[in-house]
Amino acid sequence: MDWLGIGVLLIGIAFLTLTFFMIKPIRKMSDAMDGLKQTTDRLPKMVDDLSTQAAEVLQASNATITTVTAQVKEVSPFFRIIGDTGTATRKLTLRGIDRMTELKDKTNKASDFTTREKYEGIYGILSFIFFLSKRNTRRNG
């Protein structure tokens, strides 16, 4: 045997030894690949189930939104009525406040008049009524 044959024989023995050492890791890798295959085989069914459940949830949400929208449409006229009532009440209250302020001003002016003219007793009351009647005739006329 020459040197070339000995070299080839040594290389063959090295590959054989390497093969024996690599059998166990390769088997473990094969088992891992089998587990991966099983997982990926189940994946389409899982995705299908997940998408079905998501579709059901979306349909239920749409039904709920439709129901809420219908109920809001039924109730919204009541809110408009309540708003209109509030507006009318506010206007009425403002008119009452204006009238009360006007009456207060008239009373204060009449009181100032009686104090300034130093009217007292029945004469003061009569002059106060006369003052108010003059005031009303000016306003109406």
Based on helices, strands and strand pairing, what is the structural class? mainly alpha
Alpha-carbon Rg, integer:
52 Å
For the biggest sheet, the summary is: none
Query: How many discrete structural domains?
Result: 1
> Averaging pLDDT over every residue, what do you get?
84
The percent range for strand residues is under 5%
Shape: rod-shaped
Helix count, DSSP H or I runs of 4 or more residues: 2
H and E order: HH
Fraction of helical residues: over 70%
Essential attributes:
about 140 residues; mainly alpha; 2 helices; about 95% helix; single chain
TL;DR of this structure?
The protein is an all-alpha fold and 141 residues long. It contains two helices and no strands.
Describe what you observe in this structure.
The chain has 141 residues and is mostly helical. The chain has one domain (3-140). Helix content is 96%, strand content 0%. The mean pLDDT is 84.
Architecture blueprint of SSEs:
Blueprint: H1 3-117, H2 121-140
Helix pairs in contact: 1-2
